[in-house]
Write a structure and sequence with these properties.
It is built from 13 helices and 18 strands. By secondary structure, it is of the alpha/beta class. The two termini are 50 Å apart.
Length: 490
């Protein structure tokens, strides 16, 4: 069953079957992979910008390798099992449909699983032809001729020093799975200054050489040194400029230009803020909200609650409005404090104040962070909303992302574009001082206002429906839905 068809032809045939051509960037990847295989270069790193098709190409490469040698054992490692299975399913689909691999599919269904499958081969081997595993799962006892590490570095595996150390340790363990003379292929984009893909050692961590020292590298950023697009048919200059504005300089540098970014260099600069005065104005006749003559089309609010106390976090509610041009207005950063003169329990006091703020700002919804004490506050907040007929929904949110990354990514793009406006009243709160003094990774710093505002910025906008302010108790912000990717789990 061995075949001498080149990988470029194998790729082109597959794309022809899909009714599409093969862009030059994919031929470039294919040539590099095939050349490395033919010259027995067994330590490989393919860095390419997001949405470049690198995982698809490597899936085709795995199928091509099995066409050449069906006795190979390929282990696919990814940040989690879901991502690894995605690669394995892609390889299965190619083997089933590609005219050069159709005879590799075995007759028995039990050999054709979701995360492991075995092609028709000559040898009786214990390990399957393709096995998908998450990087945190146990792979002891497995053996592989080829290991494909597909996006093993993602925010969830590298956003703290502990996670980065654990990732490196687990990747080193995979060397014991690889047979002598086997191939390791890493594919991905950097997500940290201390990236496993960095080409120079990070001395501050005691690293004396890069983690993938000695690996042959192919690095394809979205634009070359002359500013030319690596895939002009799909990523035009206009598209790239738009992506840079929406992603922000740090994320664009790491995910599209493949430059590991030092989060400490992404500190927030208050000089990029644009301050304004004035109040919100709601037009009963038009059913529309205005701010300094600009029509407001959406709002988001985030409450990070705390009962306060010496040395504890502050309880902060942040509200952001968006106009029809995409400008964001940080209109309120409310540091909610308990009163010793109020006989009501602290939770009830805070929920009452949050409900009042939501009513005054005519917010369609408020998100409550469920970490810590927030677990039991939504029910109390809904009750307080109902008492004053605020007509504001309560959303329960869970944050899983490292706080420093969450804050930086929320503010980075909108501040770089000079589209974040801050009300003058916010100057009277600790918010601006928090921004001036914020340092990623610093211990004990005050960043509660920043964190709440980051939550509000990261939420999908809630559109103002015309009937929202009719006085009825409505717990849905709108009858229409809007899907967006965020760093928060609902």
């Amino acid at each position: 069953m061995s075949d001498t068809t080149s990988f470029k032809i194998f790729l082109a045939v597959w794309n022809r079957m899909q009714g599409q051509g093969t862009p030059a960037i994919h031929f470039r990847m294919a040539e590099w992979l095939e050349s490395a295989w033919e010259t027995e270069d067994r330590r490989l790193l393919l860095l390419a910008f997001r949405s470049s098709g690198k995982s698809t190409i490597c899936g085709l490469f795995a199928a091509w390798l099995l066409r050449r040698n069906p006795d190979l054992r390929i282990l696919v490692l990814a940040a989690d099992l879901t991502l690894a299975r995605k690669m394995a399913r892609n390889v299965k689909k190619i083997i089933e449909r590609h005219p050069l691999t159709a005879d590799l599919k075995p007759p028995r269904a039990d050999q054709w699983g979701a995360d492991r499958f075995t092609v028709n081969r000559n040898l009786e081997l214990r390990d399957p032809s393709v096995l998908a595993k998450g990087i945190t799962t146990n792979i002891t006892g497995s053996r592989a001729d080829v290991i494909i590490c597909d996006d093993v570095e993602v925010p969830n595996t590298c956003d703290t020093a502990e996670k980065r150390a654990d990732l490196r340790e687990r990747l080193v363990e995979s060397d014991f799975v690889l047979v002598p003379g086997g191939t390791v292929l890493y594919i991905g984009t950097p997500h940290s200054w201390h990236s496993i893909y960095a080409d120079v050692p990070r001395g501050e961590t005691g690293e004396e050489r890069p983690f993938l020292d000695g690996f042959s590298r192919l690095s394809i950023p979205v634009t070359d040194e002359e500013g030319q697009s690596a895939w002009p048919e799909r990523f035009t200059d206009t598209d790239i400029a738009r992506m840079k504005r929406s992603a922000g300089p740090n994320k664009f540098a790491s995910q599209m230009m493949l430059t590991p970014v030092n989060i400490a260099e992404g500190r927030l600069d208050p000089s990029l803020l644009r301050f304004y005065g004035g109040s919100l104005h709601y037009s009963e006749e038009l059913g529309e909200m205005y701010l300094n003559g600009r029509r407001i089309v959406s709002a988001s609010a985030w409450w990070d609650p705390s009962f306060g106390g010496k040395g504890s976090d502050a309880s902060v509610l942040a509200a952001i409005f968006t106009d029809e041009h995409g400008n964001r207005y940080l209109h309120r950063v409310e540091y909610i404090r308990n009163s010793e003169c109020d006989p009501a329990p602290p939770a009830e006091q805070q929920c009452r104040k949050a409900a009042f703020a939501a009513q005054m700002l005519r917010l369609p919804s408020v998100a409550v962070e469920m970490n810590g004490i927030g677990k039991f506050l939504p029910a109390i907040l809904r009750k307080e909303m109902a008492k004053i007929r605020a007509g504001c929904a309560v959303r329960e949110m869970h944050s899983r992302v490292n706080k420093d990354i969450r804050i930086l990514e929320a503010f980075d793009a909108v501040m770089a574009a000079r589209m974040l406006h801050v009300h003058e009243n916010v100057r009277k709160t600790p918010f601006i001082t928090e921004m001036q003094e914020w340092r990623p990774g610093a211990k004990g710093q005050r960043d509660d206002g920043l964190d709440a505002a980051a939550g509000a910025l990261s939420l999908a906008p809630v559109r103002f429906p015309g009937e929202h302010f009719s006085g009825r108790q409505e717990w849905q912000g709108s009858g229409r839905s809007y899907n967006a990717e965020t760093d928060f789990e609902v």
